[in-house]
Specification:
With about 290 residues, this protein is mainly alpha-helical. The chain is built from 10 helices and no strands. Helix 2 packs parallel to helix 10.
Length: about 290
């Protein structure tokens, strides 16, 4: 049996306990509020990698598609076509919220190799991309390489140096375009490639064919920036677009269709991550209408 405290002791203990409990609750609330505030400041500092899409960022479309195979398809491995493309693009997204240009361009080199066998429509796109990648690499590895290490560094330098064209005005010599303008053009082409691959990988039986889906992606992303003659040439090129099965076989040779679809979706998701990061940085700099 416990020993009962005298009534005056119980009342005194009760009077002291209530303020202590209130103080403890208040301290806990303040600590929780401080942690939340600190976390919010941290994400606002890195606006391009914060949770939630920034203004003008595209909605994430590349959902997951589970593969029935336990092992990763060889095409996503270090020597696989998709793996060689995805790896540098993924590495280009640095923790500070920027895009490393050397890795971004290395990813583009592999994307061009990947798309070239798909037919004349991709040959048209990849030839344009090859020219732009080569022009940007000349800056990244040129005498002013220190100003072209990342997208944000490049934009800041070209703005200070007065190298940015007026929005919507094409330079007389496209070879002399600013690095920012060249990146914007590659950025749009990356979005088209990503949408095309994702839609091909997720298309359903009886739905629109691969050519129709990639043509629709072109009309959404690139057609508004192309003259009429180019749009007509592209429309004709889509008539000879390869079928979905052929595209999947080229992407993941010797892999079952379900696993090939899942691998292409994963690759498209990485391209979308790169696009969203780049879109955020270009939007913050006010350069989405530069070309």
């Amino acid at each position: 049996m416990g020993v009962a405290l005298p009534p005056q002791v119980s009342r005194r203990w009760f009077r002291h306990t209530i303020p202590l409990a209130i103080f403890a609750l208040l301290l806990f609330y303040l600590c929780a509020w401080s942690l939340r505030a600190f976390s919010g400041c941290r994400f606002r500092t890195l606006s391009c990698i914060a949770e939630g899409p920034p203004p003008l960022q595209v909605r994430q479309e590349s959902g997951s598609l589970e593969t029935p195979e336990r092992e990763e398809p060889p095409c996503l491995g270090p020597q696989g076509t998709l793996g060689r493309m995805v790896r540098p693009f993924r590495v280009s997204l640095n923790p500070e919220g920027d895009v490393e240009l050397s890795q971004y361009l290395a990813g583009w080199r592999e994307l061009i190799k990947f798309l070239t066998p798909f037919g004349s429509i991709f040959a048209f796109a990849t030839s344009e991309a090859f020219t732009k990648v080569t022009a940007l690499e000349a800056r990244v590895h040129g005498p002013e390489a220190a100003h072209y290490t990342s997208l944000a560094v490049m934009v800041a330098w070209e703005r200070r140096a007065g190298l940015l064209e007026r929005p919507g005005v094409s330079p007389g010599d496209s070879a002399r375009s600013s690095g920012s303008r060249t990146t914007l053009l590659l950025h749009r082409a990356l979005r088209w490639s990503q949408l095309c691959l994702h839609r091909v990988a997720t298309g359903t039986l009886g739905g629109p064919g691969a050519g129709e889906q990639c043509s629709d992606a072109y009309n959404t992303v690139l057609a508004p920036h192309h003259p009429w003659l180019v749009r007509q040439a592209v429309r004709l090129a889509f008539l000879s677009f390869p079928g979905r099965g052929h595209l999947l076989e080229l992407a993941c040779p010797g892999t079952r269709e379900a696993a090939a679809r899942a691998a292409v979706v994963r690759a498209a998701s990485t391209l979308e991550d790169v696009y969203n990061r780049t879109q955020c940085l270009l939007a913050e700099a006010g350069l989405l209408q530069l070309a």
